[in-house]
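Quick log. Single chain, no ligands specified.
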Amino acid sequence: MEAAAGVSDAFDAIVMAEERFHGEGYQEGYAEGSHVGVIEGRRYGALHGAKIGSEIGYYLGFALTWQRLLHRSAEEKPSKKIKALESLIGMIQKYPYEDPTYDKLHEDLEKIRGKFKQVCSLLNIQSDFRINPERSALTF
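-> predicted structure:
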């Protein structure tokens, strides 16, 4: 009887070892995947954050430059162009750069893009903003 119990225990140990190794492998794989996912997510976030920052920086530089040019040649009352530029500048200055958890981040960015297109239309210039993926430069 003891021999049968010993064989049964050895068999159970083999079966349980498989389950144990499966569980340990799963835990190790899960931990490694989580670590790699955090690294990949951080890289992805930094890349897209830099793209949005470049885009908004471009819009702000564009708006400030045109605002200065139009103020030099402006009449007494502010023109529709200047008001639109000031609105764009205000939207950009209120944009929550340092809060990635802001609920309306992309919605506000779309509003800024729309206002930029409106300003370009008023100024009668093309509103083409692109980031060249091969180089870290803007193309116009």
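The CA atoms of residues 88 and 94 lie 10 Å apart.
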